[in-house]
Amino acid sequence: METKDFYYDLPRELIAQTPAEPRDASRLLVMDKASGALTHRRFYDIADCLKPGDCLIVNDSRVLPARIYGNKKGTGGHVEFLLLTQKEQDIWEVLAKPGKKARPGARFVFGAGLLEAEVLDILEDGKRLVRFDYSGSFYPLLEQIGQMPLPPYITEKLQDNERYQTVYAKELGSAAAPTAGLHFTPELMKKIEEMGVHFGYVTLHVGLGTFRPVNADRIEEHTMHAEHYELPQETAELILKTKANGGRVIAVGTTSCRTLESVAQKEGCIKASEGWTDIFIYPGYRFRVLDGLLTNFHLPESTLIMLVSAFAGYEHTMHAYQVAVKEKYRFFSFGDAMLIQ
User: Fold this and answer.
1) 160 CA to centre of own chain
2) Residues 122-132: what's their mean pLDDT?
3) Is residue 152 in some structural domain?
4) pLDDT tens digits for 138-165?
5) Same domain, 244 and 301
6) Which residues, other chains included, contact 49 with Cβ-Cβ below 8 Å and sequence gap of 6+?
7) Is the peptide bond before 151 cis (omega within 30 degrees of 0)?
8) Which end of the chain is more exposed for a tag (fewer CB within 10 A), N or C?
9) What is the mean pLDDT of residues 279-291?
């Protein structure tokens, strides 16, 4: 298939700039996977779409406030760092703006001196390898001085950093939120659990590559970025028990989906597993684990809309997106959700 097959026209005003208040007040488009039939609901009604014995698999990765602003030592020139990947203790890959200031040996100060950095190397793709110096613990310091790395299509300032975190976020490491889970509240999760639906937790640290456009004309020629995942024993046992009892395994978000399918592909079954995945799911892929998928509305021609199309069917997916545009659903990270079952 060609990348252009996944294009749809989206009016700019439908790109959500702020999260819904409260979280579960967002809209929910429910698709019947077999027929493609669509139903319009609110997210707080999702319990009506679930059955006792089902399980929801969520990604508990927590977003790093990874965008930091500082000054170059000696000249005072302003600089912005975006932390991407921790390579060693206190050594990170970062994006630096402006890049011309971040030459090897250059030093920078952030948070009025709470954090210092030295550029060690310039990597092939323009990223910088940087060593940080500080007193105390790194992550609490980052929480203190850093800002959320919101996607480029969100231009409004976020008033509360926790609104770009799921309520169950725990494991620090993502450069972007697993946004399908942003709609859940503690109260809604309790209601769902009380009806006999279980939550299982995986961790996949979302990289900035999730926003990287597909530049190849044919989707098969696109190279995916790698992300680190972990599927714990407790979650593996929940999935196997759910399947054995005739329940459904529903992934909350494409990241949870990619974790489950990566493990099944790598291990040949669902079991506790940890590693890196660059799995690329597009139409023609045979799903090994998923029975349902809860997801937000994704960018045109993105790997994420290709994954949804693989699960729901290409025609069903593109029709659903046309309906969502017509009905003025809110799109992307802070937008509305779609449940495919």
Assistant:
1) 18
2) 92
3) no
4) 989 998 999 998 988 999 988 898 999 9
5) yes
6) 30, 41, 339, 341
7) no
8) N
9) 97
Alpha-carbon distance of 262 to 278, in angstroms, equals 8
Q: How far, rounded to the nearest angstrom, does the alpha carbon of residue 301 sit from its chain's CA centroid? A: 17
56 pairs with which residues across the strands? 199, 250
Q: Does 220 share its domain with 296?
A: yes
CB 338 within 8 A of CB 22: no
Residues 197, 314 share a domain: yes
In 43-114, which ranges are E strands?
A: 55-59, 61-63, 67-72, 78-88, 91-97, 107-110
User: Dihedral of CA 146/152/155/160: which sign?
Assistant: negative
- Mark whether 20 and 135 lie in a shared domain: no
Residue recorded with tokens 């669902």: 270
Q: Residue 156 is which amino acid? A: E
Q: Is 11 exposed, middle or buried (0-12, 13-18, 19+ CB in 10 A)?
A: exposed
- The SS3 assignment for 9 reads coil
3-state secondary structure labels for all residues of 281-298: CCCCCCCCCCCEEEEECC
Domain region containing 56: 3-63+160-340
How many structural domains comprise the chain? Answer: 2
Element (H, E) at 267: helix 254-267
Closest to 315 measured CA to CA, from 28, 50, 43, 38 = 38
d(CA 39, CA 28): 8
CA 287, chain centre distance (Å): 20
Q: What digits encode the pLDDT tens for the residues 57-86?
A: 999 999 999 999 999 998 999 999 999 888
Asked if omega into 22 is within 30° of 0 (cis), the reply is yes
In this structure, which amino acid lies at residue 111?
G
Q: How far is it, in rounded angstroms, from Cα 236 to Cα 147?
A: 34
* The model's pTM: 0.91
Closest CA to 299 of 211, 238, 228: 211
Contact between 100 and 79 under an 8 Å Cβ cutoff? The reply is no
CA distance linking residue 281 with residue 297, whole number of Å: 16
